[in-house]
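Record copied across here:
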Amino acid sequence: KNKELGNISLSLFDEVTNLSKQQKLSKTLISSCEVLASYLQVLPPNVIVSSDINVGGKSSERVLQLVKSVSGTRYLTGHGASKYLDHELFEKAGVEVEYIDYQIGEWPQEMSTFTPFVTSLDLIASLPLKLAKQRLKSISKNWCDFIK
C-alpha cells in the first residue's frame, strides 16, 4: 500500500530510511540526496562522485581539476568556498565560479517560528510536491558579485 505520512508516501519514507543500512556513511549521504532530489524532480542528468575521478591536487587546484575532468566550464558552490577558493585560478582556466544565493520560501511548520535549517523531509512532509518545489527557487551569483 502507498499510505501517506503527511505529504510523504510511505514508499518514499521507506526508501530514505533504508538508505541508512548501507555500509559507508558517504554513500548513504549521497544516496539520500539523490532520492530526495529525484522526488523533487531537481536531480541533475548524472551524478559523479569525486572519489571516482582520478585527479590530484589540493584545495582550489583539486576542485578545478575535477571540473575540467568532466569538461565543465562553470563551478557552482556554496558560501563556505568564498573563504578558500582561488577565483583567479578558475578564471585563468576559463571556468566561471558562481555561488548559490539561497532563496528559501517559508512553509508551514509545527514550530512557532519558521526555520529553514531543517531536513528537506520537513518541506516535503509539509507540502504537496508542486508547492514544495516552489519553495526551492535559489539563484546563483558570479563570484565577484557574491564577494562584494
Observations:
- Strands lie at 4-5, 8-9, 74-77, 96-101, 139-142.
- The first helix runs from residue 10 to 18.
- The chain has a mean pLDDT of 84.
- Residues 67 and 74 are 8 Å apart (CA to CA).
